[in-house]
Amino acid sequence: MKLYIKYMVSTRCKMLVKEELTKLGLHFILVEMGVVDIMENITSDQREQLSVALLKSGLELMNDKKSVLIEKIKNVIIEKIHYKDQTPKMNFSDYLSGKLGYDYTYLANLFSDVQGITIKKFIIFHKIERVKELIIYDELSLKEIARNMHYSSASHLSNQFKMITGYSPTHFKNLKSKRRSPIEYIGNPDNLIKENNFYKEVMN
Prior knowledge:
Elements: E1 2-6, H1 11-23, E2 28-32, E3 35-38, H2 44-56, E4 60-62, H3 65-82, H4 92-100, H5 104-115, H6 119-137, H7 142-148, H8 154-165, H9 169-174, H10 189-195, H11 199-203
Antiparallel strand pairs: 1-3, 1-4, 2-3
Helix pairs in contact: 3-4, 3-5, 3-6, 6-8
């Protein structure tokens, strides 16, 4: 039986979910980003207990089909951007359609309606956060980062980075306190409004 969990985007989240399933006597076959496959059919009481436990850690057990699909879209994007050393160059619309088995126009319209942000802008915010991480690692030049993240040039990356963060990549690299956002916050309009003074400009 498959369960779908919102905001489950890190190794820490996976460990937490595994612990909660074990407490309920449930045996998992697979625990991946946003989805859990368990051996048993979960009872309504177990579902309620799991839901309460997950909410305490900022996770959410989902039932609505549209919410499940939205989370799948997010997880496909997050995995491709944050958890691949170097992803092959591919149009995101084709990639999402192929991974999820839906027409991209349907996915894009659903995402915009529910999230209040386009898939394209969600991708941009995550790419910039990944760029921050690579800058902090200081193992690649800006040109190499731009190539790995499939920007047309280092200047294209620099311009987009400054539009989102308010800093040039060089300025960001020299900051004593380099602000990073938790992955589950990135692309969430409510959190961006709080954390990013440039959000309204970017969204228009």
